[in-house]
Amino acid sequence: MSHPENATEFLKDKAKSKWHDETLWFVRDKRDRISKTIPEWEELRSLASGIKDNVLANLDSYLEDFERNAQKNGIKVHWAKDGEEHNQIVLDILQKQNCTAIVKSKSILTEECHLNPYLEKNGIEVVDTDLGERIVQLLHQPPSHIVLPAIHLKKGEISQLFHEKLQTEKGNEDPAYLTHAARLHLREKFLKAKVALTGVNFGVAETGEFVVCTNEGNADMGVHLADVHIACMGIEKIIPRRKDLGVFLRLLARSATGQPVTNYNSHFRSPAPEKELHIILVDNGRTAQLAREKFKNSLKCIRCGACMNTCPIYRRSGGFSYGSTVPGPIGSILSPGLDMKKHSTLPFASTLCGSCSDVCPVKINIHEQLFEWRQEITKTHGELGKGLSMKLANGIFKSPLAYKISGNLMRAALKTLPNSLIYHPINAWGKSRDLPEAPKESFQQWYKKNRS
Amino acid sequence: MSSRENILAAIKGISLEPKSLPEIPDFGVPGEPVETFINSILGNKGEVLTKTEFESWLPKTKFSKIISLSSSFSEVSSRGLPKDPHELEDLELAILDGQFGVAENGAIWLEDANLGLRVLPFITEHLVIVLDRKNLVETMHQGYNRIGGAASGFGVFIAGPSKTADIEQSLVVGAHGAKSLRVVLV
């Protein structure tokens, strides 16, 4: 299904979509407020962007440094060219341990590789332990946001779900009560798991360590109780030096949720005594993206989700409307690189307002890349363009006379068009929109009268 | 070719314009570090106590399962560290020494040597970190300068209690880790 079709589905529940819009705007506003308390905020963004530019220009040598240093510290390093190989490596480790159940903290990469269904098919029970991820997992849904996985759900729905799955009181919607029920349920899983899997926020080439950030403490509860820790990392998550973490940790949580830092920021350098620590470095289309000069900057992303919270389209159409693992503006420039045909409508799911680029902590030119992808897609799949109306507009903008006439016609039409024509079921544009009040004259006419 | 060689060869095959690695300036935080730090911890839903306040708080809690690895309060432990971390499941209180705190966000650095077992500050129901007020730095940059090349197998910045807002963005303290964080500034 295309983005517009999915978005239409989401917008059917008007009250919920309004709530979704306002809630994400609230998160965006928190990000704004906290960023204003750091005088060097813009300088930090430039630094982060510069560090990531350097990483992308030297990715091979940083990966080799990272591997060498991690191995020196007793970490087992694996490489996977794609999602399939990544999943196979995870399964091999689990089978060697005779492990049939794992706990997992948030990892967008494993979503991208479709690890959960693969492991389940092979008889492994996978328990997502981030509260939002556990909620969507129990509903057999993917996350709808990379930082706030269950942001598309209301507490009534979660209460009903927990009543069915975790035997909570029917109708008790108190978030504290529901969270406590999840705590008890997941604690049992933490205590039993022999293997724990996490994502990676940053891998440090200089030291071979990697950093995992959470607020709930679920990653740490899992890995420190288990015998084996598997960390899954996209190759672009490398940063050169330990001190670079200072820049990125200052930006990450402030951009993501408007808090000064995540409450737990764990640095894994070597396994605890008698334990195993594995890291899987995954390509899955990243080297191909690096080779695309216009789009390689998308690999600078640190997965904060700020571009989603600010995007007028994301806020009003929901994460599922994108049909891609990473939704929103950043997802719309990453996904076409993986499958251009499947994701051909995503770069058009934008007003090109540029707000995504303005809030991006690593200064990715997201809206410019959206525009570039539109051109690539139109070149490759001409039939997918916006069609007749755009061709018509093209003709009008080319001729000054046609422009003038159409302007006069439009001002007249806006006044006289019956509502039944504008708010007609076949006119998708009329949905959730009001037409502006038309001025009596064009700017040109006004200027002639008043200034000439 | 192995996937390792494939990936590295693919990257080496791309002609990439050189980009230099920027140096990080030494940013500071305006204001007085102790006050900034206290406000940061409060903002993260933790509490800050003096030594006297802590000493009067502890008996009132009636906790009987306590592990203290703090040099300032070693006598309050009710048990020692187990060999198997799973035995910490019913622990009510852990008291640990933090190495330093970061004023701008309340993050406190602890390493293996401070933790005993890595799961300790997460699995305990309540957490107390003892921190010398002389060991406060302004920003994360100074924090990492201070860590330098330290070679601990594990290190963590803890800035507050376990929390979540995954249900309708309502903040709930006490998700999976410690339900509270008290910082004793000595």
TrEMBL record, chain A:
Record's keyword annotation contains Hydrolase: no
Record Pfam families: Fer4_8, LUD_dom, LutB_C
InterPro entries tied to this protein: 4Fe4S_Fe-S-bd, 4Fe4S_Fe_S_CS, FTHF_cligase-like_sf, Helical_ferredxn, LUD_dom, LutB/LldF, LutB_C, NagB/RpiA_transferase-like
Keywords: 4Fe-4S, Electron transport, Iron, Iron-sulfur, Metal-binding, Repeat, Transport
SUPFAM superfamilies to which the protein is assigned, alphabetical: 4Fe-4S ferredoxins, NagB/RpiA/CoA transferase-like
All copies of domain 4Fe-4S ferredoxin-type, residue ranges: 291-312
Record keyword 4Fe-4S present: yes
Domain of life: Bacteria
Protein name: Lactate utilization protein B
Origin species: Algoriphagus jejuensis
From TrEMBL, chain B:
A Pfam family this chain is assigned to: LUD_dom
Superkingdom, taxonomy of origin: Bacteria
Domain LUD span(s) in chain numbering: 87-186
InterPro entries linked to this entry: FTHF_cligase-like_sf, LUD_dom, NagB/RpiA_transferase-like
Protein name: LUD domain-containing protein
